[in-house]
Amino acid sequence: MLLALELFDNKQYAQAMDEFGKLNTDPADVIKLFPELDNKPGGKNGKLKAEDLEKALNALVKYLLELRSRKSSASEASGSQDDPSQRNVMQQLELIDITLLKCYLQINDALIAPLLRLNNCRLEEAEKILVAHGKHSELVILYQTKGQHLKALQLLKEQAKQPDSSLKGYNMTRRAEHVNLIFKFSDWIIRDYPEEGLKIFTEDKIEVETLPRPKALSVLPDSVPLARLKTFLESALDNQLSLKRKTQVLKGLLYAENQQVQELKQFHESKSVIINDYNVCPVCKKRFGNQSAFVRYPNGDIVHYSCRLEQAAVRQ
Prior knowledge:
Elements: H1 2-9, H2 13-22, H3 27-31, H4 50-77, H5 84-107, H6 112-116, H7 123-132, H8 136-145, H9 149-159, H10 179-192, H11 194-202, H12 205-208, H13 213-219, H14 230-270, E1 294-296, E2 302-304, H15 305-315
Antiparallel strand pairs: 1-2
Helix pairs in contact: 1-2, 2-4, 4-5, 7-8, 8-9, 9-10, 10-11
């Protein structure tokens, strides 16, 4: 590890990170070399500046991404979440992702959104960082990936009047389990931003199909042209027609099956059986009496009913 630290002090950041990777150094120890990421005044914060800091952070990002890939694979291959080693891996992934978030804020904030769409960050810590940097669009993504849909929609509403705000892209809230949130927040969007609001009910046909039609239509203004509702209305009609066709096909199949059973029943009932004094039961080797109950097998064999029951009991 001394070699890696020496390389770092000599500003050979990429080589230092390679050495840390080979030594399987605890990522927490590597991250401690970058106090600048915490933006704390004084102390060691002034160690790296300007181009040195950017070069070092890029090397750190490369190291963290490679480590993240290995740790993620190990986590997927591991067993129960209760396993101490698995918990340690998850804690390291949390540290890696929150550090990547801090790095991207300093060197390339365009990479923040892709990171957050599949992240291991602790919600509270990432939320605090994004709020401090005014990253509201990215904060919406964080809430979305963490299942905090109410917070995401509230933030969208608060930021709606900002010039760089976007009401697009939050289509996961159109799922059936979030239907109450949809109708709670769709009214103000439709009222204040009718073009964007209408897309909630007209874009993404698969998701639109999960919405209850009568309730959805009730929140749309009367002034909306029917042509704009084409996708929504078509999906509703397609579903009804598809269900009707499936019902008709199933009804036809059941009817045909019933006819086959009836014909088979009539065929077997039409066959006559003649028993005389010479007929012997193949099971008990006794003749059939006048009052005997018997069973005829498909191959033509005739046995006493009681013999048939005994055979069945033996087979069980």
